[in-house]
Write a structure and sequence with these properties.
By secondary structure, the protein is an alpha+beta fold. Helix content is 48%, strand content 13%.
Length: 203
């Protein structure tokens, strides 16, 4: 009888510990393991749904548009450069609606949020007209091309980041303006840094 009572008492003392351990595991599962699994599934679904034309950002902070998809990698166009990344390097796919609102997909409709002292020097507009006449293809130039041209020459800051910060533009639009200036021969090609050489100063 004493043995049975002792066994019952032992089971009774272990039971609360087992219940506590089960509760701790349950909390751990629902707070850590389950959300992590859902996040992994969402990331895998995102990688599976990647398509050419998606605007993405890598874990290293490189932004670009997918131009080619492979089994385990993708190639993006970032400025004038094409770079191949493993799919695991993907951070997120940008929302095209948000991009449009920020001017990434509608490059030619926004204006600066504040007046800036650029775009008033006729020497810059005349030089741009001369350079445009040498281009044989029809191009829809950005409305701020002249303003940006004058800015980068006067301030000696031929940089996408400087253009974006000064004119309050999205990085996508600032990059497009820089590419147009490069096409016209105003600035040199990218050399791996954000700053480019200014080739044409009309002053």
């Amino acid at each position: 009888m004493y043995i049975i009572a002792a066994q019952q008492q032992g089971v009774g003392s272990i039971l609360p510990s087992l219940v506590m351990m089960a509760l701790v595991f349950g909390v751990f599962y629902f707070m850590l393991i389950r959300p992590q699994k859902k996040q992994q599934k969402k990331f895998q679904d995102t990688m599976n749904e990647l398509k050419v034309g998606d605007q993405i950002v890598t874990r290293g902070g490189v932004r670009g548009k997918i131009v080619e998809l492979k089994a385990d990698s993708f190639v993006i166009q970032s400025g004038n450069t094409q770079i191949e990344f493993l799919k695991q390097a993907l951070s997120y796919v940008e929302d095209p609606t948000k991009q449009s609102n920020e001017g990434v997909n509608s490059e030619f409709q926004n204006v600066p949020v504040q007046p800036l002292p650029y775009g008033n020097d006729k020497r810059f507009s005349d030089k741009l007209d001369e350079l445009k006449s040498n281009i044989n293809e029809e191009i829809e130039y950005d409305l701020l091309l002249e303003d940006v041209y004058e800015f980068i020459v006067i301030e000696d800051k031929a940089s996408v980041k400087e253009i974006s910060n000064t004119f309050r533009l999205s990085e996508g639009r600032a990059t497009e303006i820089m590419n147009q200036l490069a096409l016209l021969g105003v600035v040199g090609e990218s050399t791996g840094t954000d700053y480019r050489q200014i080739l044409v100063d009309p002053r």
